[in-house]
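Technical annex B. To support the medicinal chemistry partners, we prepared a structural model of the target in complex with 4'-deoxy-4'-aminopyridoxal-5'-phosphate, based solely on the information shown next.
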Amino acid sequence: DSVFTNVVRAPEDPILGVTVAYNKDPSPVKLNLGVGAYRTEEGKPLVLNVVRQAEKLLVNDRSRVKEYLPIVGLADFNKLSAKLILGADSPAILGNLVTTVQCLSGTGSLRVGAEFLARHYYQRTIYIPNPTWGNHGKIFTLAGLTVKTYRYYDPVTRGLNFQGVLEDLGSAPSGAIVLLHACAHNPTGVDPTREQWEQIRRMIRSKSLLPFFDSAYQGFASGSLDEDAQSVRMFVADGGECFIAQSYAKNMGLYGERVGALSIVCRTADVATRVESQLKLVIRPMYSNPPIHGASIVSTILKDRNLYQEWTLELKAMADRIITMRKQLFDALRARETPGDWSHIIKQIGMFTFTGLNTKQVTFMTTEYHIYMTSDGRISMAGLSSRTVPHLADAIHASVT
Ligand code: PMP
């Protein structure tokens, strides 16, 4: 008998499990709108042209070796990543107030930041939006933080519950950590306006809360890298402390390369160096040091003027295709005279639409139309194409009539 006889079968991950189910479906019309991965109009994964070019340069450079990176990763990559999110002329960078460590994509950056906070920060409670990306709660809980939620989404307006955000942050204990989506909130696609961000910032600073930004979609929401970094930059401009987890999964299409960065903005350069020394103690026993290939691709692109320029165009093209899919889906539902107000499809931003469909309707769409999505009614717009919009519109129409 196995010593593991008592191990019970765990449920599939609520997001990645959607793909598992999709893969098992033999239907030729099946459509996977679960996982947030960009697809072309032909429904194919996309490797950016700049990524191919950078990889060619790396392969042809015979001086490159496969030695270990330092614990904190590739120095160039870290500097360039901080610049990308904070802005090239950021006073925080110029004043050496920022420590940046290369981590395993967005998830790994969140986890390293969380582990650091659990060890070195006095207030162990983190507030995450309700709803939020399904992994947030688990990451912070396993790191040893206490997870609470703040109201974020209003199902009636399918928009932001701004009053709820301010009230819940206003009654959080002083010093509590607050997780914020830098842009393109997942799963709702609902972001605060600039004025609302400013009020959220004031509330956070007045209560001495600690902002922790998750930036998984810079450039993907609006098509502009600077525009999508505005929220973060507002919080850094006021001189206060701030955590930022960056992912290059979506905006460079480097999903499986696991490239990301954790930046901690401190009040003094001296604190920043001490914080970095402790981050190394967090990382070393977890995975020792990060992988070299993906970070080399990113730094090759970010430091070359032409590649960088070409990247911004490719990024804009991905963002624009997603925005076009929103428009097409909205028009298709209007053409079918599908009951209900579907304007949130074009108002929401980023990779996902939070349709408002309930679990029963989602199940119906999966069993009758072979359309796969998370049970909360979130669909990945990046997985749609002009060819598949009519099928999705038919399914939504049937599910609500
Ligand atoms: N945060 C959010 C909000 C996300 O949507 C994702 C990706 N789905 C991530 C973090 C992390 O992704 P990765 O670890 O692949 O960078």
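Notes passed to the chemistry partners:
The first strand starts at residue 31 and ends at 32.
The first helix runs from residue 16 to 24.
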